Amino acid sequence: MERIINNQACPWKVLRRNWFCKATSYKNVWICALRLLRIASRNALKASIRKWKSDPNYTKAWYDRGAKVHQVEKYRKGACENCGAITHDAKACMDRPRKKGAKWTNMYIAPDEKIETFELDYVGKRDRWNGYDTATFARVIERYKARHEARRKYLKEQQRKKLEEKNSNPSEQVKVSEEKEDDDEDSLKVDEAKVDESKQMDFAKVEKHVHFRRRWQRQESKFMHLEPLTEVIDFRNLRIREDTAKYLLNLNVNSAHYDPKTWSMREVPLSDSDLNEKFYGGDNQYITSGQAMEFKQLNVHAWELYEKGQDVHMQVAPSQAELLYKNYKVIKEKLKSKTKDTIMEKYGNAAAEEEIPKELLLGQSEKQVEYDRAGRVIKDQEIALPRSKYEEDVYINNHTCV
């Protein structure tokens, strides 16, 4: 028997004759059975292959959106109470809600919508491109063409203005040409790393260089010459050359370590400098600022809940973990405020500033104070020294002071 595999899903041991089956009197029956099995598998494989051009489920016809088929003059029983169309009910009506529906006014009956049904299989129902009109993409092409044309006209106008400005100042051009003639050949070499002031103003501009590569490809026993277009974007003038690289801020060997593999510098290179002059504070400042600390607390809260037996995981269900953390913070604040109010109600607040009585704020006294023109106190009422119950300046038992 020749080995012919018609269906990869059908194992070979099913199609071939077993070693223990002898080719005796039932040889023809066994061969016929295998042939029938091969034919059935071949037909099943052909049926599974979709013929896209002749498949009725993938026809170009699609729903005629917004089409109307029939309009009556009187309200029909079972129609929409709002507009009067028989194809939908009042709950699914898309017309403007009327003050009095067509059921009661029997006027301005809306036409019925065109309802179509397409018998689609499992794949056809779930095909996202089914019913897509490729002609609508022409609008996108027209929009891009119009934008490209407007950009081309704008650049042409800018170039024309620059030429007019150059022609209006011929004396400056003569001076520039004389200066160029006096320079040596070495001065004509421009270093790519140096950018003049006029180009530094346009540091956000991206230059594109186009390269053509020749390739040969065999197709239909013929060699075709291909020249695909590959663009290489040059970002040389995206960074201002005046900015110092972070690994050159401090050349001390014992300063912050710079990892060239990850382009990272964790510590602060200039730790002793002024805060106003410290424009770069190390990569760790991004880890300990903004929402990074809150995210760390969220992770710690999820770990603690998981250790206590709750089914919470930050990577599996981040929304659930964030919601639980928000609820936890709200409950914690409520409990904290409730405990504080209970303690204040029971013991009071000794640290709170008591309100000064209005009698003291608005009260008057007979104390007289004199000031000079500069606002200094010249003469004030003498402060009465408190008198002690003990005798003053009396030293007993040979003491020299009290």
Describe this structure in words.
The strands form four sheets. A two-stranded antiparallel sheet has the order 1-2. A two-stranded antiparallel ribbon has the order 3-6. A two-stranded antiparallel sheet has the order 4-5. Strand 4 (215-219) and strand 5 form a beta hairpin. By secondary structure, it is mostly helical. It has eleven helices and eight strands. 34% of the residues lie in helices and 8% in strands. It is found in: Nucleus. Residues 120-402 form the Pre-mRNA-splicing factor SLU7 domain.
| Rg for CA atoms | 46 Å
Based on secondary structure, the structural category is: mainly alpha
**Succession of helices and strands:** HHEHEHHHHEEEEHHHHEE
Principal-axis shape equals elongated
Strands of the largest sheet, in order across it? Answer: 1-2
Strand proportion: 5-15%
Q: How many helices in DSSP terms?
A: 11
pLDDT below 50 for ≥5 consecutive residues: which ranges? 1-5, 49-53, 184-238
Summarize the structure.
By secondary structure, this protein is mainly α. Helices cover 34% and strands 8% of the residues. Strand 4 and strand 5 (222-226) form a beta hairpin.
Write the layout of secondary structure elements.
Blueprint: H1 12-15, H2 27-48, E1 68-70, H3 102-105, E2 112-113, H4 122-125, H5 137-168, H6 170-182, H7 197-200, E3 207-212, E4 215-219, E5 222-226, E6 229-234, H8 284-287, H9 292-307, H10 318-347, H11 358-361, E7 370-371, E8 377-379
Antiparallel strand pairs: 1-2, 3-6, 4-5, 7-8
